Amino acid sequence: MFLFVVSCVLSVGGALVGFTVLAASRTMSPADRTAVLTFACSMIAIAWVFGPLLVGGADETVDPRPLSLLPLTRRELGAVMFGAAVSSPATMALEVGLLGGVVAGWSTPLGGLTAILAMLGLFAFGLGLARTVAALMGLAQHTRRGRDITVLVAAVSGVTLWVGSQTIGPLLQSNNGHHSNVVHLMSLLPPGWAAHALLLSHDGRPLPALGWAIGVLLLGGGLLRSWATLSGRLLVGTTLLTRTGRAQHGRLWPRAIDPSTAAMAKAWRYQFRSPIRRSQMLITLVMSIGLMLLQVVRLDSPDPRIVFMGLTALLFSAASVFNVVGFDSPSLWLEFIATGDLDRSQLRARLLALTPTITVPVVAGIVTVAIATGEWSAVPAALLATPAAVMCLLGAGAVLSATMPLPAPDGNNPFARTAGENGCAYGIAVALAMGSLAVLLFPVIAPMVLADGATWGYAAGLAGVAWGYWMFRTGLRMGAAKLHLRGPELLAELSQRAAT
Fold this sequence. Notes:
By secondary structure, this protein is mainly α. It has two domains: 2-236, no CATH class; 259-499, no CATH class. The protein is 75% helix and 0% strand. The protein has 19 helices and no strands.
């Protein structure tokens, strides 16, 4: 009840703001009115589509499977779902806000009718597209590849909204060519058709506006039809993707004939088959690219050494590296029962299996900065510093994982949160580990940045690789020693059921 009241209060505020902004565009200059209406219509559609993916909305209008046991015909079920979809507080706030668009486009009775059709078309387009995308994601959840697509779409949508919210304002306020280019690009998309109809209706040209309004209205009707079809497939449990190809047999790792290589083979396969691990890699990759774009997109003349900023993508991988012992800890009981101890090979295998999850986002961040700025001269140096950064992070992760592991069971839900209470102690330990990582990398990164392409900078990078390897071996030795002393105790704390 409390959340519903809060939702209603926020929706009332959003309705007032939306109505005011759209209605106030009527009195603006032609250029400002075009920018405001085009941007507002586009953002309404984008937020409506990506909102359920980001906040986890999964009511019966998104996933109708809970309604499958009710004695309803298909027509009755569709009426129930449509009524629920248009009567939520957020949707009703949007409906009130769209009335401001009618005010903005009203000039003559025919123009008012055209404005109403345009807003109805935008409403149908947003509702149909949002529910169609959600239904597609629901169907995709039946397969591992589909779950990867779901995670990727959710991560891309979140980063797009994040980067767009930070950059679109300065672009629209600037006086350069980016302003008109952004507005023109938005006007070509279906939400921009509704804005076209409002602008033409305001200018006293209702007949051309009627064409744009009918276009977005027809497209919205088609999307609503698509939503109904996909919802029917959800009710009967069909999938979008089917597994094809032959199963792979044979060795998973070259010469996996001893405990060390066998542990590496198991960790390597588990890394790419675990839903949580796959999701972490996809989200980390997208977040790294988004962070780099957000930092450099507004720079006029960046320094070539800004590509070293790509190394900050390590921050997104730290959570995985700092808890390799706690993740899926019950499986470690098998190793303990078989050997009577938790040797170094298990810890090393789990750490090395995370190398792609760490390295790929860092390299992607470096390349993204270079592409966005056009500065490639320092890219080789930044790539040379990547192995040292990755190995230092793995060394710090080995110590923290063996010292303060947290229970983190794996599962089929890629958005599941880590189980257990982190607490202040763990937060302080992670902060200290990140500070230690910065101290360890400073002797490597600082000379390479100051060298600015000089030969001695590359020599420092090569020395940094050796330094990182030594730090990894040292951290691994310290972590293995802690597991040797407290292995059974830690496993009992992480998985009490397995311990009993």
